[in-house]
Amino acid sequence: MYRLLSTGRLVKWYNSGLQNRYWGFDSLIARRRQDFPMNKDLIVITGALGFIGYNVASFFNEAGKSRLILVDREVRQGRLTSLQYEQYMDAEELLSAPAEFFLRVKAVVHLGASVNTGDTNKEAVFKNNFEYSKKLFDLCTKYNSNFIYASSAATYGDGSKGFDDARRDLEPRNYYAESKHAFDEFVRDREAGPPQVVGLKFFNVYGPFESHKGRMASTILFSYQQAKQDGVIKLFRSHNPSYKDGEQKRDFIYVGDTAKVINFFLEHPELSGIYNLGTGHARTFIDLAQAVFLALGKKPKIEFIETPEQFKKQYQYFTEADMSRFHKAGYMPPMKTLEEGIKEYVVEYLEKGVLLD
Fold first, then answer.
1. Domain limits at 108?
2. How far is CA 39 from CA 34, 85, 114, 163, in A?
3. What is the pLDDT of residues 322-331, one digit of tens each?
4. What is residue 30's predicted lDDT score, i.e. its pLDDT?
5. Active-site residue 352, yes or no?
């Protein structure tokens, strides 16, 4: 068991029956080898206290997985204390962990990233999303650990080239998307790598524990807040003659389903590849707004507003994951429909004030 000391240091805690003793991680690995078995029993989750990462860690706990190493750049104490885990580490600390640590790592689930699609600091975005990911990839290669990471549907740009997860000649429209595409290409081009490498191109993920993301949170959260406060949901107008106002479409996927998929790949180490992760069914923003009102038991009232200029150039009017390769990999459980996911999110979390931010 690990405990957080008053000094802020996280240490392993032993109860001898007579007195409590603790060792820091560096001292722990210095103990005799028979007391430190080198079986691969640890799962590292980066971005573990963020939106998708926290949901994945919670799902792993529910599935009986508690030998977790939680990694992030910011401690959210409410989330940390709600999880069962072996150790919390800072993102940079992970890169310098000793060999004895990585020899125990079964898999790295890399979900940490800079996710602001409007970030104009290309160097900072690529440092976090590309260079850091490469370092983790190389560590997993060196220590024979499986590697599952988050890519993004943003790599498809405006969608004019379709949403085939085997296609490489994509045209991302912002630095975030460029960094994700660059790492996908790095993975595809490497001749040597970890025993398992899975990249997941997340489409529009929504669900509990996302409110800390601010303006990068899902439209579902903003729609809920508007419906509660004003009784009306405001959607962006269409500036594309092929789509009426509110009929822009996205492939919305519930965060609980993404956790199930990551667990599936974790339990099938024979599978590798870069896969789309959506539902395979695009839905309109009007559908979304109506589902929010339905979950709240309110009569729908929708208004349309201008799309901010800074978003018009990179705005996607249609996204829909091609899930054919994903299903060929063997994952068959149904995804939640938009209505099912929004109902659970609104009724079980937002209405109950379950935030943990």
1. 10-206+253-281+318-336
2. 11, 17, 33, 40
3. 999 999 999 9
4. 36
5. no
Would residue 176 show up in a list of annotated catalytic residues for this protein?
A: yes
Which residue type is seen at 1?
A: M
Asked, for residue 293, whether it belongs to a domain, the answer is no
Structural domain contains residue 224: no
Residue 120 lies in a domain: yes
Catalytic pick among 65, 106, 213, 234: 213
The single residue of 176, 224, 254, 275 carrying the catalytic annotation is: 176
pTM over 0.85, yes/no: yes
Read off the tokens for 42: 């640890």
User: Does residue 311 fall inside a structural domain?
Assistant: no
Please, which residues bridge with residue 68 across strands?
43
- Alpha-carbon distance 66 to 63, whole Å? 9
Domain tally, the chain: 1
Residue 96 has which token pair?
A: 């310098």
Instruction: Indicate the average pLDDT of the chain.
Output: 90
List all residues 6 or more positions away from 108 whose beta carbon is below 8 Å from its beta carbon.
43, 44, 46, 136, 139, 140, 145, 146, 147, 148, 149
What value does the mean pLDDT take over residues 271-278?
Answer: 98
